[in-house]
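### Sample
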Amino acid sequence: MFNHILNNDFASVVKGRRSVRHYDENIKISKEEMNEIISEASLAPSSANMQPWRVLVVDTPEGKEKLRPLMRFNTAQNDTSSAMLIIFGDTESYLYAEEIYNSAVEQGKMPAEVRDRQLGTMLSMYPTLPKEIKVEVAKIDSSLFAMQLMLVAHAHGYDTNPMAGFEADQVAKAFDLDEERYAPVMIISIGKAIEEGHESVRLCSDKITFWR
């Protein structure tokens, strides 16, 4: 587990997270710390360890100006946050399979024969999956990453807000990404809150759980 969460009570990290819409515009997160946050969030699980999440960090005035007309009613987050993190699911994540599995063998985390067997199965199956299945898998895994990123950011002392209210059919093209390959999942604003987000109410477990 990463140090920032170890140094915080995990329950307080989970319960303390708020969705924030207005940030301190004077706060900028360094590239080094943003990379650390993304790396820690990447410890999230994924199907066959394919790690399909891809993050576009929009933190320049030019980038935010390009993103602004695509944000619908979420322009306050875009205008005031330290960065807007556009989360995509890579439908061709299997292209990294050999790199991932070879690294696992080199680091002593997987026997070579297991690598060979799993790679053979994946590389014969993944490329032939229907596009809609590839998108679904990529979005599910990338959502796990996104939730972990928000918790990691909170452990680092930052606030976030996940958003689905944006022009999902335009955002990849706007930033010169392959629309066929990269499926938009959500956008997460990140920074230091200037207005504390409201604490929200959750349904009790009895309302959301079925026992058989």
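The CA atoms of residues 50 and 97 lie 6 Å apart. This sample (Nitroreductase family protein) is used throughout the tutorial notebook.
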